[in-house]
Design a protein that fits this description.
Mean pLDDT: 95
Structural class: alpha+beta
Number of helices: 17
Strand order of the largest sheet: 15-23-22-16-17-21-18-20-19
Strand content: 15-25%
Oligomer: single chain
Number of strands: 23
Length: 600
């Protein structure tokens, strides 16, 4: 039987490529991991080749490509920010005429259409069939198809899709081969509001810095008089002074005398010509009461609005108890934790890449479920009837290729670093002892993670018990703001003994935040309010489970710090060479790459 390969491409910011084989996700890479430019736009031939090599196939083996955001952001002069001609990419219709921006607009204006094609994607001298998949639908599909659910409501909440849509709600039922639109539009613009407030606080561009608002919010207190009536849908009521504009309402209620001319830092990435507004606040003033109050109010409005939206959905659509979340806004793990507490009867799922990098996954998985081949080996559409694939934790988050011992040793051979090769038992015990002794350990294993958060394959590990470790990591390793917290990695079987969750609670992708009930015992593993962005670890995590178990046996604490293996402003490391460079340029004490134990 012929293997059906679908190539997924997200061509906007957070550019990414995925590979799906017979309805199963088998590869993923964010373009930034290879170019080393944070949030890189577009797709490269090198990234496509990376996945083809990982699978051991060639471009001619790809059945079809699923493309999202083919036309995306432009700069202030109106030029596209991703120049397709650099990589020699183009798309033509059945008549050989190049697909235009006007064609793309027409597709997006038809809200009932989730995919459009067939067209032909040309990559230099090679070509393959392709379809365009709607931005928000790709978000919803990504979370549903990777979830363990056979049916679910899938909600996407994002900044915007450049065509006026801020959110979408779809119902998926795999058994009945159904996907149904419930709601979509621009009236739930909470993601745009949050991003705008991030820029207003001086943390621009919000595309990279929105998490700073979430972190800072814990330092402030919500002003109930200011936030009253500003959450969705109350703010949309007739007669509201700023016509439902949460941003303008919040900054003026908070005392601002001038409305900034610029609402967002645009274009949205550094180096693209964006200019901050002179009336935005200074990020250096984060410790002022006003800034902390604004952050707390912003976070509250997000949480209240999301609660109201989920309540609206669950009150009117009762076919399922499963809810999938996606879109960049759902990277806000504090809000996600609040939703779990607010709706205890519902099962929530968020994929590791809910932001725009995950669009390459959603589009490819959806299209892969729609295609078959006729006797002439031509692609046609018919929803497949195969059982829904259930992914393990590692299968869900490991997207990148694995590096051989030879490649790792080569990256070390021309350095002055000391290294030795150890067996699994020795390396597990050595890492656990190093962490308990206060050392900072960079850990590199297997293929790189899908999404923006290191989940143990490209991580920095440290002792959460050490009260000085948070400041040490922020200052000497991550080189970032002192108020930002780190995530606790905890054995799943003991998570309920340390955090306010039920026994058996799972959060394998670091996307839900909950309060610790023993925060004083792990002061560097929790935030100022004792909350932690949980990552639960099981035997499915391999040696990482053994490391934490060994650490628990040494210390009586089944919790360690996990943060991404990168320096400020850089993507997470991808290759052994990236790892060696980051290790050498920071005050990390130990580097472990597979079985190689490296010191300075």
């Amino acid at each position: 039987m012929k293997n059906v390969y679908v190539l997924g491409m997200n061509c906007g910011h957070d550019g990414s490529v995925s590979l799906v084989k017979n309805n199963r996700l088998v590869g993923f890479i964010a373009i930034e991991r290879l170019t080393r430019n944070k949030k890189e736009r577009g797709v490269t031939k090198n990234a496509i080749k990376y996945l083809l090599n990982k699978e051991g196939i060639k471009l001619k083996d790809i059945s079809v490509a699923a493309i999202t955001n083919w036309f995306w952001d432009r700069n202030m002069e109106g030029n596209e920010l991703w120049d397709k001609s650099v990589e020699d990419f183009s798309v033509v219709n059945e008549n050989g005429v190049e697909y235009t921006f006007e064609d793309w607009q027409q597709f997006y204006q038809n809200t009932g259409m989730v995919a459009m094609g067939m067209h032909t994607l040309q990559i230099g001298e090679q070509s393959l069939p392709c379809l365009f998949v709607d931005h928000h639908f790709s978000h919803c599909a990504s979370s549903f198809y990777l979830s363990p659910f056979k049916d679910a409501v899938s909600l996407s909440v994002d900044f915007a899709d450049n065509m006026g849509t801020s959110h979408s709600v779809y119902y998926f039922n795999h058994s009945q081969r159904e996907y149904r639109l419930i709601r979509r539009g621009g009236d739930f613009d909470i993601g745009s509001f949050y991003g705008s407030m991030c820029d207003y606080l001086g943390f621009y561009p919000s595309l990279t810095d929105a998490g700073k608002v979430m972190a800072l919010s814990a330092f402030g207190e919500v002003d109930n008089e200011i936030v009253d009536g500003l959450s969705w849908p109350d703010v949309k009521r007739i007669g509201q002074l700023y016509h439902g504009d949460i941003y303008a309402s919040l900054i003026h209620r908070g005392g601002a005398k001038i409305t900034p001319e610029r609402r967002v830092f645009y274009p949205q990435l550094k180096g693209e010509g964006g200019i901050p507004d002179k009336n935005w606040l200074d990020k250096k003033d984060w410790n002022k009461k006003n800034n902390k109050t604004i952050a707390a109010n912003t976070q509250y409005i997000l949480e209240k609005s999301m609660i109201n939206m989920i309540r609206e959905i669950t009150s009117n659509f009762r076919a399922t108890k499963n809810i999938c979340l996606s879109g960049g806004t759902t990277l806000n793990c504090v809000c996600n934790g609040v939703l779990q507490k607010e709706f205890p009867d519902y099962n929530f799922y968020i994929l590791p890449a809910p932001g725009d990098d995950g669009l390459a996954i959603g589009g490819a998985l959806f299209i892969s479920h729609q295609i078959k081949f006729n006797k002439q080996d031509e692609v046609y559409f018919e929803y497949t009837k195969k059982p829904k694939i259930v992914y393990s934790t590692i299968d869900t988050f490991e997207g990148g290729r694995k590096y051989s011992n030879e490649e790792i040793e080569k990256s070390l051979s021309n350095t002055k670093l000391k290294y030795e090769k150890l067996d699994d038992i020795d390396i597990v015990n050595k890492i656990a002892k190093d962490i308990s002794d206060g050392k900072i350990v960079a850990y590199f294993e297997g293929g790189s993670e899908i999404g923006p958060r290191a989940l143990g394959h490209r991580s920095i590990l440290a002792d959460a018990r050490n009260k000085d470790m948070k400041d040490k990591l922020n200052k000497n390793v991550k080189h970032r703001e002192e108020f930002r917290p780190f995530a606790p990695m905890v054995l799943k079987e003991k998570v309920h003994e340390w955090f306010d969750v039920e026994e058996g609670y799972e959060s394998p992708f670091m996307l839900f935040s909950h309060k610790s009930i023993r925060g004083s015992d792990i002061p560097s593993g929790v935030h100022i309010d004792d909350s932690g962005r949980l990552q639960t670890i099981t035997k499915d995590n391999g040696k990482l489970y053994d490391i934490i178990k060994s650490f628990d046996e040494l210390t009586g604490v089944p919790v360690i710090i996990n943060t991404s293996f990168n320096d400020k402003g850089e993507p997470i490391v991808e290759t052994p060479e990236d790892a060696v460079k980051c290790f050498s340029n920071t005050q990390i004490d130990v580097l472990v790459m597979e079985g190689f134990y490296v010191t300075k």
